[in-house]
Amino acid sequence: MDQNTKWVLNIRVVLLLLLSHVTSALEVPLDPKVLEGLPQPPTITLQSPKDYIFDPRENIVIHCEAKGKPSPSFSWARNGTHFDVEKDSKVLMKPGSGTLVIDISGEKAEAYEGTYQCTAHNDHGTAVSNNFVIRQSRSPLWPKEHNEAITVQMGVPLVLMCRPPAGLPPPVIFWMDNNFQRLPLDKRVSQALNGDLYFSNVLPEDTRRDYICYARFPHTQTIQQKQPISVTVLDNSPERERRPGFMMPLGPTSTKMVLKGETLVLECIAEGLPTPEVQWQKDGAELPVSRMSFRNFNKMLKISDVNEADAGNYHCTATNILGAAHHTIKVTVKAAPFWVSAPRNLILAPNETGVLTCLVGGDPKPKITWFVNGFHIENAPEDHSRKVEGDTVILNNVQSGSSAVYQCNASNEFGYLMANAFVSVLAEPPRVLTPPNQVYQVITNNPALLPCATFGSPIPAITWFKDSQTSIKNGDTYVIHENGTLEIHVAQPLNSGKYTCIATNNLGIKENHIYLEVKESTRILKQPEYKVVQRGMSALFECKVKHDPSLVPNIMWLKDNGELPDHERFEVGTDSLTIKDVTDGDEGTYTCIVNTTLDKDSASAMLTVVEATPTPAIVYEKPDQPTDLELTDQTERSVRLTWIPGDNHNSPTQKFLIQYEDLLHQPGVWINLTEVDGTSTTAQLNLSPYVYYSFRVLALNEVGYSLPSQPSSQYRTNPAAPDENPSDVQGAGTEPNNLVISWTALTGFQSNGPGLVYKVQWRQKGVEEHWSSRTVANASQLVVTGTPTFVPYEIKVQAFNDYGNGPESEVVVGYSGEDLPETAPESVQVLVHNSTLAEIHWEPVSDSTVRGRLQGYKVYYRHNRTLQDAEEKDQQEQVLMFSGNRSEGRLPGLQPYSLYSLFIRVLNNKGEGPPSPIKTFETPEGVPGPPSFLDVIDRGLDSLTLKWGAPMDNNGRLAGYTLKYQPVNNTIELGPVQVMNLQANETSFTLENLNSSVLYKLYLSAKTIKGSGPTITEEAFTAMDSVHTQPPVETGKVLPVRPAFGTVNTSVSEDGAVISWEYFGHHKNVYVEYIVDNSKEDWKKELVNGSHSHLIRGLKPATSYRVRVVARDPVDPAVHSTDEVLVSVPAVPSRQVDIATQGWFIGLMCAIALLILVLLIVCFIKRNKGGKYPVKEKEDAHQDPEIQPMKEDDGTFGEYSDTEDHKPLKGSRTPSNGTVRRDESDDSLVDYGEGGDGQFNEDGSFIGQYSGKKEKDTHEGNESSEAPSPVNAMNSFV
């Protein structure tokens, strides 16, 4: 598949994916409650493989399972015609399934060979299976043959042919002898893929009479044997050595075709003497190491999971000492059909449009054929809503009853694919699948996910509400996912509450409630601390925890990440761990872990146990130096050293260190030679030649080393040839035409004798047979000139002295010097992914033009200008390095809507090659940067004037601005957001119709066609209202500013007085203050921040209070308040039952009236006795001629002076003028809220609560003018 075809295929994939999203695929949920009653066309769920080879000794089982609603029925076709299963007694179809079980016992199995196909059908469509090719496995006998004995001369090549009979499936081939022992295979003797046995050259030990080829047939597990082959190898005229040649494949070239996804197996078997080695290479590319393996002693190359990149020329090279042979295998990669995008089931609502796509790849390009319910689409009933366009079927305005199953068949010469996809037309109202009233808990600052799984056709639209009022939109705080789930990125306590998701389509609406609880995180406030405790004492670790009150913490302690010891000494408290009677075993790390159902926290501390009381210290010192060194058992390369140890000073000697001084090469330098155990007093020392030795010994205990002993007598060893060669031999050129060979020279100690020199040898690897050499002395490198550029060399460096040469040196491979690369990368292509990312592709340079070790590719790119600028700007060039043999790379961090240019250089260790031709490309538009500033330049009572600056980076053509604003009330809660879209040329705007004295939060972002950029915010208050206070402000003074209070309402209940108000200020502290009317006491106040109503408790009955709401700000000395409101508290709780009409009450009132009459008579009698009554004015007011004043002596009424009787009688009626003083009646209806002072709540909450009527006298409007109610009359006797 060429590059253009790939691009076209990729574009078609994108277009089809976009088209498929026009109608979203509706998935049927697996919930049985939802599935019940939903019609569904058949779907094949299980089927046998396309190629089915059966064992004639077992039954044939062809699987075919399907699902649907209603359950589908099954039928079969064999060899293209209907197969009547019921008429064949040997064939059984499983109940509720289409699976066939064919009993072939006693029957000819060949009769059931053929091509089968299963069909599943219900009222809504028909699904079909693949074609199953059913074949019987076969293991034929080997034909009788007579194999001639083979006689060959030693060294010639030989092929023993196997040629097994064709079986089904093909047999497995192997060679054995008469004893059933496998014949050994190696790089000289190998078995080819076709089973033949190849000898690159024969040897006398190949003579045998039992070369037997075996074929094992897998299905029947039978083995067939070829007649033995006899081979005799003669050595009377052996073959001479020869160059390699290929036995298989023949000729200089061959071809191989492999299918994509399969395993490529290439084979090269060579002959030659000596036996050649086989190597593999691929033109222009490295072999894929991760998918590649070599088999059969490098004669076979296997590459798994083949793709288009594996096509090309593969070279196998056979090499021996006489030369090489080459063979090229041209590999082509084809592809059976494979899915790019298989058709998917569609569930559509009536009048919707759907798309079925059958996107496949393959080489050659597969042919697409569509079927409907098993019939070719051209032969299916005509459907005007259906349109076929190659690999796409478009269904327009589908209608009920048009459900069907569509089949897509894609085939080429290498195979076929078939897929079923049903189109089900459903009309279903929404259903919410998430259980109702679920409670979700989450820890503060963590994400919260509230699910709302739904089903319906058409697909329901999902909307969310909080607390059944606030509509939730996608924004910074909330994200509504496609599946309906509501996500809160960072949950806060204010997010707690009731959430409602509503699913809607044109057939109905369904809602579900979910509750979210945001909990406080669990934290360890006081962590355990590091403790140092004496043995036998106690250790205390604290672990104080802060957690959400609704969560129950579980505290667990660990020791060294394991459980605490099960011992009573360990006491776990509520917030502590106590360890009593500490022992050494208690040392370790103790961890406190706090778990709740939602989160956890942990903290650790270490415990160190020390001695309870220090014991007297033992004095420890370094040992004394050894003495009396003696050398014995002297030889050329060894000597025995003996010494006497010194005092160890209470610390046993651990070891002895033996050092030597080389008086010939390094006088005055002592070098460690060996160490021996502290219990030894002698050591056998291995020595080197040509050294003047002197030894000394040091003793070591826990305190340290002793002083060195006195040196031993000198011991000289004789010179000898070197024992070793220089180390770290390397070869690396510094110039294109040289090779620098370097090494680490031997020391005088390593030289073993005088006259040390180095023999340096080199030759070009794989080209030169003879070594070049040079001898150098007193040097550690050699420069070889005149070398080709960057070719491998084999290098050896060997040491010599006057007494001989060192051992044979190892061969090291180095490279001559590098030169700058010759060529530049070609075919540079730029694929722009988005506004900030581009992908570069190029054709890598060939290895021969790199002229060095490839380090990678450097991409130089420059931002020329933005597409809005006419002139280019001088921008700094940027460089990206892509290491290794790369052919692509990515350029991140590009500036949107800009023009860029780039070129590429290849890089080796020497430097960079020439640049590729300059390539220019453009980046598309992106979202703009934030506006450069946002200022509030004018504040009005109901307006704010804004000014802003354009973004520093437009990143495209500026389309305008989005301005959002919302009020912030005194509880820091945000009000509803208002959104305004502004033109791109606007840089100022006035917000009107705002509330005064209110803080507004402003959000401004710029936008292009790609969307809105980052938002900048600002906060500002509107101006405050100004009012006059009493007394009036003097002329020339500034009016005080106070917040805007709204209406103040009051009401009285049994629990107290309820005060409510409106307030739009920004002050932090708001109080309700109250005082008894006409009192000089201080005002009482109660803090009511964050509320607009308050209940005042504990008020005295039958008392009036003055109440006001006050706002104070710590930074503002002024006090702002409402007008004072008078609130009257009743004496007794109100009663709702009207007892004035009760019979028993009327009787009681009559008795009371009679009693009053008796009392009046008594009063008259007392007055006749001389008591003084102040009744003269009352009598005048009544103008009753029958009532005359009487004196005490003459029986007339005078003044009554008794203090007690001076008060009016309880329950007596009011005077005729209708006035009663406030201090003369404790039972006035005024105290119950029915007086003329207008103390009613606005909602009329006191109306109808009392039985008496309310009237006002024309000259005493604020006093009660009617007789007390019967309730008050009764209360007056209590």
TrEMBL record:
Alphabetized InterPro entries for the sequence: FN3_dom (IPR003961), FN3_sf (IPR036116), Ig-like_dom (IPR007110), Ig-like_dom_sf (IPR036179), Ig-like_fold (IPR013783), Ig_I-set (IPR013098), Ig_sub (IPR003599), Ig_sub2 (IPR003598)
Alphabetized PROSITE patterns for the sequence: FN3 (PS50853), IG_LIKE (PS50835)
Domain Ig-like: 42-129, 143-230, 244-332, 337-424, 430-517, 522-608
Subcellular location: Cell membrane
MF GO annotations: cell-cell adhesion mediator activity
Cross-referenced Gene3D superfamilies: Immunoglobulins
SMART domains with a match to the protein in the record: FN3 (SM00060), IG (SM00409), IGc2 (SM00408)
Signal peptide range in chain numbering: 1-25
Chain intervals for the UniProt region annotation (Disordered): 709-734, 1174-1278
Ranges annotated as biased composition (Basic and acidic residues): 1174-1194, 1252-1262
Membrane-topology descriptor: Single-pass type I membrane protein
Assigned GO CC terms: axon; plasma membrane
Predominant location category: membrane
Residue ranges occupied by any Fibronectin type-III domain in the UniProt entry: 625-720, 725-819, 824-926, 930-1026, 1042-1132
GO biological process terms on file: axon guidance; brain development
Family, as annotated: Belongs to the immunoglobulin superfamily. L1/neurofascin/NgCAM family.
Protein name as annotated: Neuronal cell adhesion molecule a isoform X5
Organism whose genome encodes this protein: Betta splendens
Gene: nrcama
